[in-house]
Amino acid sequence: MSPTSETAQGGRRLVIVESPAKAKTIKGYLGPGYVVEASVGHIRDLPNGAAEVPDEYTGEVRRLGVDVENDFEPIYVVNADKKAQVRKLKQLLAESDELFLATDEDREGEAIAWHLQEVLRPKVPVHRMVFHEITKDAIRAAVANPRELNQRMVDAQETRRILDRLYGYEVSPVLWKKVMPKLSAGRVQSVATRLVVERERERIAFRSAEYWDLTGTFATGRGVAGGSAATSLEGGGGRREGASDPSTFTARLSAVDGRRIAQGRDFGADGQLKSASGQTLHLDEANARALAAALADSAFAVRSVESKPYRRSPYAPFRTTTLQQEASRKLGFGAKATMQVAQKLYENGFITYMRTDSTTLSDTAVAAARAQVTQLYGADYLPEKPRTYAGKVKNAQEAHEAIRPSGDRFRTPAETGLTGDQFRLYELIWKRTVASQMKDATGNSVTVKIGGRASDGRDAEFSASGKTITFHGFMKAYVEGADDPNAELDDRERRLPQVTEGDALSADEMSVDGHATKPPARYTEASLVKELEEREIGRPSTYASIIGTILDRGYVFKKGTALVPSFLSFAVVNLLEKHFGRLVDYDFTARMEDDLDRIARGEAQSVPWLKRFYFGTQEGDDAAGAGAASDAGNGDGDHLGGLKELVTDLGAIDAREISSFPVGNDIKLRVGKYGPYIERGEKDAEGYQKGDIPDDLAPDELTVEYAEELLAKPSGDFELGADPVSGNQIVAKHGRYGPYVTEVLPEGTPKTGKNAVKPRTASLFKSMSLDTVTLDDALKLMSLPRVVGVDAEGVEITAQNGRYGPYLKKGTDSRSLTSEDQIFDITLEEALAIYAQPKQRGRAAAKPPLKELGTDPVSGSPVVVKDGRFGPYVTDGETNATLRTGDSVEDITPERGYELLAEKRAKGPAKKKTAKKSAAKKAPAKKAAATKKAAAKKTTAKKAPAKKAVAAKKAAAEE
């Protein structure tokens, strides 16, 4: 029976989903007897602070929001910004005959549905309505076939939430005390940060090795019909351009006198050969050039030709992590931007649910994909039987489907009407899904060995490999990208001439090539997601928010697309490894995820598991019921089994030691409360040196030589003399926002409270520097703003130095000055003359771009870097995106520029702040006070989304 025919019999059904966009789409598929309303995410959660905890709770319960002494009972509170929505839902429920909880079908969605049921306390029948795509048929089928709430999923999600709260609220304060205030630790974020830090440690320890080899260009002596050689093989990456049988090709030296020539893979991180045996020959430049000269006139012949069939099968349909990785490689999207765009596509009915571990396609989806293969590529590309893909993710939620176009007939990208990032991501998903049901690509791979004897008697062997694709199969629709920009893609052909064993070849050219081994590449968002998934750390659906958290917290910043750890993250990871070792141990974290999935399957119990994790193993505990990973220990002493004991015993943690790192030449890097710096010697001792570290310096770039340069620069406090009026010492300093001057207040001067005195402070002009600024300069700077005079109406005019340069101010009217010197030199007459001119409302002449990056793949417009009010930014003329910490005008790559624009587009346009407008309207003087209060409430309600954002960030930080 259809939903509309059911509603025709009378009755009213309330359907609750998470988002307004989802509600709007679903409402169009249901009949008039249905009311579809959004909860707008979670309506209830653990309190964000003690102020939200009900008064009856005290002590640890008030601090944690969890009663650890009473079976870890969570204290849930309705979010302040959701109280109005809860009242609305209760009112709608009171007018309804049935309730359908239609939140997402994953663990978090199940938890939201449970919280709705607990808070709304319905007295009417309640149904759990689930679907993985928002289409008319799927929604109506979900209404007709509801299920019960899955309490096991709810319990597992609640255990995760409590675990993350205990981890975050107990470990983070340790970081505040021992490293820096306002830091955060989390079950997955701390492990992800450790991965990035460990990769940087490998880069710091890395020593490059130089090695050389030869590349020969060989000719068969046969001409090519229609012109010259069709292709060459350079580093294994030639492209087919013309004739099918080239007459020349390149091959690389592979062995000399039977000893294999050393390549990059043969060297260790220490720059030495991994194997000291005589089977590998390490060529230096001199030997390589000597060998090339000895081979100049040698005769060469084909020694062997080995041909093998080539076959490549299609890639599985997308799951969450593979979509994030491929969107990063092909579209330049960050993980967060990918999920934001995918969310919009799902809510508007274009794709299936985007948080999934499964690569399974439903029978309907397989039929739709196979139909499009036949329609678009022909029957030759369709395999006899549908393809199935086994899930590779442990504990995958196989009830979900892979990410695919929605519906029983896939819309082609052109049919969707989508534009911009949504079009590009949908096209990626559509191509991947269709390709997954196509035939294998087939062809041949060939390896040719070429031999010759040098004039000095040495035997040299060269090797060339080729690949031809005779049937492209699924590659007609889709080819996967690669994390390595130099990697060869699957559809790349390398054609070699038709040769047989014994064929004579001539060497047209013998080039000598030098190489150097490179340190391991830094993680990108795509490769970090892949690493976390392969190590089975955390849930794939949370990776985007985890990466966003470590970026927002300053543990990691971006250089191009690379994730670079900050010096702060080195200190945090150092503390966690030494004193909370197993909490950031990769295997321990993966086992913890297994335990949580065991709880979801009913194989383990939540409370015993949490007790063991928090309090440690106690006599009489049932270890099997708790779970192996819950025995959280200390890396240096596993006798401390419980988290509570770990965070209580902090005496062994030396704050200075865990935040200090040797650089060399007696120089140490220290992470202080106000940021990293380097020093040599003891403070207050003779010869002590201190230097500031640039904010965007990657740790592996802090060499001994660079550290010496930083120490040689002016740093620290420069005493300029005493103020003749106050007698206070005036000093010049280098701060986070540049050089400045300030006065040193006498000891005992109150710094806080009502009687607090703030020292006078002023930034240096751009024309000044720390080593040249004088006492007179400092006193003049600290005297600003300077009163120029008053106008005819008695309004004071001042000259000031601001964030955007020097300016005049008269009341609320500001006018820019052309130079900093004018601040002290401009006369009243000159100031009045400036104010006599009409204020320019239009924009000034556009400044030339700082850098050109190329054409944006989305908008097709040129992307440039410009200098704006808030610093440099990238723009394509439609979208602007400010450069982040770690980005610089000099180093930013086109790919990074496109990524920043993609992230900005994914966020959508900034919401207009209507709250201020409401506040600005003044009620008539005679209006009743009650009216004013009502208006105030209305204004406050409009500000609620800001609180939601804060709450969301806090929740993300805990994981």
Distance between the termini: 44 Å
Which segments are poorly predicted (pLDDT under 50) over 5 or more consecutive residues?
A: 1-9, 224-243, 623-640, 914-958
Strand content: 15-25%
Mean pLDDT: 83
Strand order across the largest sheet: 9-10-15-14-13-16
Structural class computed from helices and strand pairing: alpha+beta
Overview of this structure, please?
By secondary structure, the chain is an alpha+beta fold. Helix content is 34%, strand content 20%. It contains 30 helices and 34 strands. The strands form nine sheets. Strands 9-10-15-14-13-16 form a six-stranded antiparallel beta barrel. Strand 7, helix 5 and strand 8 (126-128) form a beta-alpha-beta unit. The chain is globular.
Present the secondary structure layout.
Elements: H1 3-8, E1 13-17, H2 20-27, E2 34-38, E3 44-45, H3 59-64, E4 66-67, E5 73-74, E6 77-78, H4 83-94, E7 98-101, H5 107-120, E8 126-128, H6 136-144, H7 151-178, H8 189-205, E9 210-219, E10 248-256, E11 259-261, E12 280-281, H9 285-294, E13 300-312, H10 320-331, H11 335-347, H12 363-377, H13 413-416, H14 420-435, E14 441-453, E15 459-471, E16 504-516, H15 525-534, H16 543-552, E17 556-559, E18 562-565, H17 567-579, H18 586-600, H19 606-615, H20 623-626, H21 643-648, H22 655-658, E19 660-664, E20 667-672, E21 675-680, E22 689-692, H23 704-712, E23 718-722, E24 729-735, E25 738-744, E26 761-763, H24 775-782, E27 786-790, E28 796-802, E29 805-810, E30 813-816, H25 822-825, H26 828-836, E31 851-855, E32 862-868, E33 871-875, E34 880-882, H27 894-907, H28 914-920, H29 929-942, H30 944-958
Parallel strand pairs: 1-2, 1-7, 7-8, 11-12
Antiparallel strand pairs: 3-6, 4-5, 9-10, 9-16, 10-11, 10-15, 13-14, 13-16, 14-15, 17-18, 19-20, 20-21, 21-22, 23-24, 24-25, 25-26, 27-28, 28-29, 29-30, 31-32, 32-33, 33-34
Helix pairs in contact: 5-7, 7-18, 7-19, 8-16, 8-17, 10-15, 11-14, 11-27, 28-29
